[in-house]
Design brief:
It is built from 2 helices and 2 strands; from the N terminus they run ααββ. By secondary structure, the chain is mostly helical. It has a two-stranded antiparallel ribbon with strand order 1-2. The chain crosses the membrane at residues 7-25, 31-53.
């Protein structure tokens, strides 16, 4: 399955190629130049979005790793919310994600 980041890279490349072909088929230098520049701008935007998403995924991964490490180091007991299945500190009276106050199992 193709991820959204890969799809953005592919759309950027396709955008440049399509603009190049349309520009060449137009027969005019100025239309070629205009469509090619438009394709390059489109591709630049797609590549920038893909780059931002890649960095967000890495940041989320490192935060999850840090969270797991801290939970092991502190030795806190966790409960699982019966409503949203989120694991949270057993000392809290409600789920921090959904706010449910139902008694959760360990």
């Amino acid at each position: 399955m193709i991820g959204i980041v890969t799809a953005l890279y592919i759309f950027g490349i396709i955008g440049v190629l399509v603009s190049l072909v349309i520009g060449l088929l137009s027969g005019s230098f100025w239309i070629f130049l205009l469509t090619f520049v438009g394709g390059v701008i489109f591709a630049t935007i797609q590549f920038a979005l893909a780059n931002v998403l890649e960095k967000q995924e890495m940041i989320l991964y490192y935060l999850q790793q840090q969270d797991q490490f801290l939970k092991k180091q502190l030795g806190t007991t966790l409960r699982k919310c019966s409503n949203c299945q989120y694991e949270f500190d057993a000392e809290l009276s409600s789920c921090p994600r959904c706010g449910s106050r139902k008694e959760a199992g360990t």
